[in-house]
Design the sequence.
């Protein structure tokens, strides 16, 4: 039997307390990280509504819904392109009304261009001035100086006053517009976007049938310098209102790897809560969203928005409505009530989603569909699209996507303590 030298025994005894301390810290970090663990669900919480073409049911009851676009008069060509694309791929069959929003009176040119593109009902609404300006209590000169400074620093759109107005409007007052008060669901449409798959079922009906609250096509990382304190404000409101952390909320957090006595110091950095845990900045890209307006009209969302409004940081930072919506949805909505429209082919600027076509599911004999699309991209095993034609792209989604939040909950690079936790468990 080997004998341990006395000098080595003394050194081991000297090191033992330190080793125990290090082990205790490691265990504490693992316990902390475990609080953000999102278990893999036993079933798919969000399967596609359909995985092939459907014969459009033009006689079925419609939901109380509208397609909503914010645009400027000079964007009549871009707006017409979006409406034409949506009409060709969806609304020619379902005829949902359009509501167009502008902060200025509409030009005859814009109205004529739209009405020549669709047979659906169209409403052209002017946003009330109080919803498209600085809050009455805010120092306007100070806010404009901050906006200029953001522009000088290169914050994306941070130097554009109208962009700040737009983000504030879509974070709050948009659901109070008179033309929308009579509607339950809305589909946000932007100028100059394209739809490259046929949408042969009614997404509003399916949202209602499956009790979905929020639907999206793309999820992207928010720019770091646009909203450095937004997550802290939202998480503070969450704690003040004793709201439990849902799996969606946990999936949006990158837990701190520091021991408890140091985590508080990291709360001084951007995109962190008071405990030092960080938001991974993955958010639903709200230029496309199909949502239940009752969610935004609910007391919780309205109270959250009022809290954010009081900070003034829609102007003193550049808080985007996409980030606000995403954090609110992740905090207040159960995971199974959020829907990814994976079967929609959508392009906005250089970002795109391009599903492949379902084998044997293209309804080649359908006269209704053939009147719209008679050719499409090749069918691929596992495809879920309907008559998709995505410009011959070999990649199906933009590489910047941060999907699937329940399966990849923290970030593309998971912290080492998460891997350790998984190994220990």
Sequence:
């Amino acid at each position: 039997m080997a004998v341990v030298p006395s000098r080595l025994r003394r050194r081991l005894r000297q090191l033992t307390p330190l080793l125990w301390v290090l082990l205790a810290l490691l265990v504490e970090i693992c316990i902390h990280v475990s609080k953000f663990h999102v278990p893999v669900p036993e079933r798919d919480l969000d399967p596609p509504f359909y995985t092939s073409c459907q014969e459009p049911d033009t006689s079925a009851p419609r939901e109380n819904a509208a397609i909503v676009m914010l645009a400027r008069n000079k964007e009549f060509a871009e707006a017409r392109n979006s409406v034409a694309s949506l009409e060709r791929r969806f609304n020619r069959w379902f005829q949902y009304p359009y509501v167009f929003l502008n902060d200025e009176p509409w030009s005859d040119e814009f109205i004529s261009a739209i009405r020549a593109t669709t047979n659906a009902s169209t409403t052209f609404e002017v946003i009330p001035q109080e919803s498209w300006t600085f809050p009455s209590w805010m120092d306007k000169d100070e806010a404009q100086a901050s906006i200029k400074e953001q522009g000088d620093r290169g914050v994306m759109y941070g130097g554009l006053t109208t962009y700040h107005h737009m983000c504030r409007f879509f974070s709050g007052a948009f659901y109070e517009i008179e033309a929308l008060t009579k509607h339950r669901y809305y589909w946000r449409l932007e100028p100059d976007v394209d739809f490259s798959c046929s949408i042969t079922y009614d997404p509003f009906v399916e949202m209602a049938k499956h009790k979905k609250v929020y639907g999206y096509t793309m999820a992207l990382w928010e720019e770091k310098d646009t909203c450095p304190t937004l997550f802290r404000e939202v998480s503070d409101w969450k704690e003040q209102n004793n709201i439990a952390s849902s799996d969606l909320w946990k999936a949006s957090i990158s837990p701190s790897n520091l021991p408890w006595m140091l985590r508080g110091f990291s709360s001084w950095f951007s995109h962190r809560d008071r405990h030092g845990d960080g938001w991974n900045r993955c958010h639903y890209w709200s230029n496309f969203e199909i949502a239940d307006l009752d969610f935004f009209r609910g007391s919780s969302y309205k109270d959250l928005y009022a809290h954010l409004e009081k900070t003034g940081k829609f102007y003193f930072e550049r808080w985007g409505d996409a980030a606000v919506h995403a954090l609110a949805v992740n905090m207040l909505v159960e995971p199974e009530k959020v829907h990814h429209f994976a079967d929609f082919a959508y392009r906005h600027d250089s970002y795109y989603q391009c599903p492949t076509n379902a084998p044997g599911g293209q309804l080649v004999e359908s006269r209704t569909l053939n009147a719209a699309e008679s050719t499409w991209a090749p069918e691929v095993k596992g495809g879920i699209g309907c008559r998709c034609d995505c410009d011959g792209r070999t990649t199906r989604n933009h590489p910047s996507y941060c999907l699937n939040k329940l399966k990849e909950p923290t970030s593309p690079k998971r912290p080492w303590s998460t891997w350790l936790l998984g190994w220990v468990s």
Summary: The first strand starts at residue 65 and ends at 70. The two ends are 35 Å apart (CA to CA). Residues 65-243+283-346+392-419 form a domain with the Spore Coat Polysaccharide Biosynthesis Protein SpsA; Chain A fold (CATH 3.90.550.10).
